[in-house]
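Write out the bound-state structure for adenosine-5'-diphosphate.
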Amino acid sequence: MDLSTPLTYVKGVGPARAAFLEAKGLKTVEDLLYYAPFRYEDRSNVKPIRALAPGEMATVLCAVRSTKVAGFQRQKLGLFEATFTDASGAILNGKWFHGAYLNDVLAPGQKIALFGKVEFDSYSRGLSMMHPEFEILTGDEDGDAALHTGRVVPIYEAAGKVTTRVLRALLHRILEGLAPVDDPMPPHIARQMGLPKRWDAIRGLHFPPQDSDLRLLNAFRSPAQYRLIFEEFFWLECGLELKRARARLDPGVGFELTDRVRERIKQMLPFKPTGAQKRVLGEIARDMEAPHPMYRLLQGDVGSGKTLVAAQAAIIAIENGYQVAILAPTEILATQHFFYFKRLFQKLDYTPILLTGSNTAKEKIGLKKLVGAGLAKLIVGTHALLEEDVQFSKLGLAVVDEQHRFGVEQRQKLLEKGAGKHPDVLVMTATPIPRTLALTIYGDLDVSVIDEMPPGRKPIITKRVDQVRVEQVYSFLRQQIDAGRQAYVVYPVIEESETKAMKAAQQMHEQLSKIVYPDLRVGLLHGKLPAAEKEAAMDKFARGETQILVATTVIEVGVDVPNATVMVIEQAERFGLSQLHQLRGRVGRGGEQSYCILVTEKLNQIAGERIRTMVESSDGFHIAEVDMKLRGPGEFFGTKQSGLPALQIGNIIRDADILEIARNEAASFVAHPPSEPEFRKAVLHIRGHWQRRYGLVQVG
Ligand code: ADP
Ligand code: MG
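---
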């Protein structure tokens, strides 16, 4: 038996169990060794019933003597009572509220192990346990009672019908039968970090030593767990480093940063870039100068001025005779970008074009010709730019807005649009997450972070208002508008019910324009409007012709109207946290005090936490962190899309501290390997590891 032995070859794993294990992704001995317990129980205090004392935590090996469901009307709520006895002849009671289901589980005569707190039961005048944990001692797995009791035991998530108990026995058998596994961790790192050996760590994960600290174990911070989490992250990060390094060797465009380019950039800039904007532009420009493709993620909170940085990068490409594509996730956002770039580039005589699904067939033909002939220098569009037969003449830079809606596949398509060479790719995202996390999640991208807001921004005041007090919101809105400001009123839209949201927005528009503010101009914007009407609605709002814009979440990203100071979000409890933060980012873009008003109905606990976070914090990093915790990393990132690797032991959120250390160690190991043979050994291990874990090849 070795690490790659299929589990079907392990004694005790028949076809039925193998199928359950496989459904959990457990196919080989190695898979099972890295199947970490999610909890541990201290079952070391084993005592006969006669020796039990009230107040102690104890483990009792005994037999079921009698069972009954006590008389509650509803079976489901029944109190289940059992009595137990052992060789000492004494009797122990067990009680479970809502335990009627146990009637089908426990039967007199069964051997059982109970774990729990011993209490004195004044009713029966004997000893009892409330809701003890238990394991039934039957079946072929129980030869070794010492395995399941009398020690700190691991508790696993069951794999279908393969219970924690069976898993424990299987792992025990495997660990007994396996020769110590080798340890590919570079020795100097293991030494410097004081990591236990891999083999000891694996054994300690499943069967912690007798003197283990239960609290550390249950916090995933025992030395064994730490080592294995670190190891998983370390190999992951090494692989990512190698992948990144390798991709950087592909041929790409080397742009020149001449004085003329610098002059043109200066000419375009409407204001002085912030320090952070300058720094990230420097990082981008260095990448663009190199004759290899850039894959860079530009992170920055809403309103931090990412688009301005993208515009500067675009100038570098255009002045070098290349074309630039700007890709947006929605048509509205594409339109927004189009206007923004058009305004910025007026002074430079570049004419951006907008190519979207709602161009007429005839328009498309004309526009595509411009692109194909290289006459259009800056092309703004949606994914459609990739799907359709748009031929660029000389694509040099692609700016992709909003990474998490943009799959790896789309990025690949983009590369194919470059004429022979990989165009540089700049991905912008307004979901700020810590750098290490970003480097892990968006594995093949380098990361630049804008961590500073343009000067003169006043923090937005955020308030929650109950739906029944919405009148107050309306009068506040009126005050702001009387003072010359503008406002958004937004309705939730859930992808599949755009029609419903549209109706709600239309209704609200009716009510606001006819009843509440008959004297004001109220615009309407939703996803179902024809493109021309969307454009007109945004344009009117941008020019201040309409004072209130009622919208669905189509305005979530990209709208830029500095005079708008109020964002009212109706039914705010239905929005996700990052989405709320994005929406709030639509205001506070000018010098005036801005407000975000979250109108809500009754809140459940999680919605309450989201709203509270919004009211208390305006820090995009903090908000993203809470959002990740509330939703879990998988849902937050949309696992499939982002290519988030499936981790076995480590959890990028719970173990963010270890991830950080592992990344630093990996980066310096790959950059300065201590010796050639050691590096080669590591690379081999990384390849195997990636292949097995993530089904990926081509590392290093
Ligand atoms: P993001 O795309 O990061 O959300 P934008 O690029 O849309 O941010 O910029 C937000 C607003 O701030 C825009 O109105 C933009 O013109 C303005 N802005 C950007 N950079 C600066 C700067 N350095 N100084 C002042 N205003 C800026
Ligand atoms: Mg933007």
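---
The chain has four domains: 45-150, 181-249+655-700, 259-450, 461-617.
The mean pLDDT is 86.
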